[in-house]
């Protein structure tokens, strides 16, 4: 028996990310190629995802485009009840359907680095000025607070210093 392979192409846009309602990505435009291979007792779903997502820059909070290119694979079997094991997904035979949207989202999210910032010089200049001003004020406050603490001493320590000086 020869394996049967079907290939489907579809686009993902902002509407997809709104429907998923997940925290990492809210907008993007990607193309998905899905190849479904029917085996004797299972289906192998192979995904190739490519495009751009819109993320918030961790430095200036402005929108930035981030390129995505990732692949993923699911093995799906029909069974009595649903099971989402790490390696094999079992879906009820009477249902016969699987929602792959969350899996696609996970592969996209896993392709995004933990720390994402604009290239040098592309951040929002106004936001960077505010950030620099805030950091300068925060350092000045911390320095003044530190100096104030150095000048104030606990009276118990002063009493102990007197005893030490008398000896």
Describe the structure.
With 167 residues, this protein is of the alpha+beta class. Helix content is 34%, strand content 35%. The longest helix has 27 residues, at 125-151.
Summarize the structure.
This protein is α+β, with helices and mostly antiparallel strands. It has helices at 14-20, 101-110, 125-151, 155-166, and strands spanning 4-12, 27-38, 43-56, 63-79, 83-84, 88-92.
What are the key terms here?
4 helices, 167 residues, single chain, six-stranded mixed beta sheet, alpha+beta, 6 strands
Share in helix: 25-40%
Shape: elongated
Protein structure class: alpha+beta
Unreliable stretches (pLDDT < 50, length at least 5) are none
Number of strands: 6
- In spatial order, strands of the major sheet run 1-2-3-4-6-5
Q: What's the SSE pattern? A: EHEEEEEHHH
> In this structure, how is the largest beta sheet organized?
6 strands, mixed
Proportion of residues in extended strands = 35-45%
The radius of gyration computed from the alpha-carbon positions, rounded to a whole number of angstroms, is 28 Å
Mean pLDDT: 83
Rounded to the nearest angstrom, the distance between the terminal CA atoms is 100 Å
Figure out the total of helices. Answer: 4
């Amino acid at each position: 028996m020869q394996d049967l392979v079907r290939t489907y192409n579809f686009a993902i846009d902002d509407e997809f990310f709104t429907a998923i309602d997940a925290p990492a990505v809210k907008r993007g435009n990607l193309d998905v190629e899905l190849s479904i291979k029917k085996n004797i007792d299972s289906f192998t779903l192979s995904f190739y995802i490519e495009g751009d997502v819109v993320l918030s820059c961790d430095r200036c909070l402005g929108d930035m485009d981030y390129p995505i290119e990732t692949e993923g694979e699911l093995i799906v079997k029909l069974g009595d009840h649903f099971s989402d094991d790490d390696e094999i997904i079992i879906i009820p035979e009477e249902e016969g359907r699987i929602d792959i949207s969350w899996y696609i989202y996970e592969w996209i999210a896993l392709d995004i680095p933990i720390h994402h910032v604009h290239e040098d010089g592309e951040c929002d200049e106004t936001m960077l000025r505010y950030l620099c001003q805030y950091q300068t004020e925060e350092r000045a406050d911390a320095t003044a607070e530190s100096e104030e603490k150095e000048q104030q001493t606990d009276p118990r320590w002063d009493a102990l210093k007197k005893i030490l000086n008398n000896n």
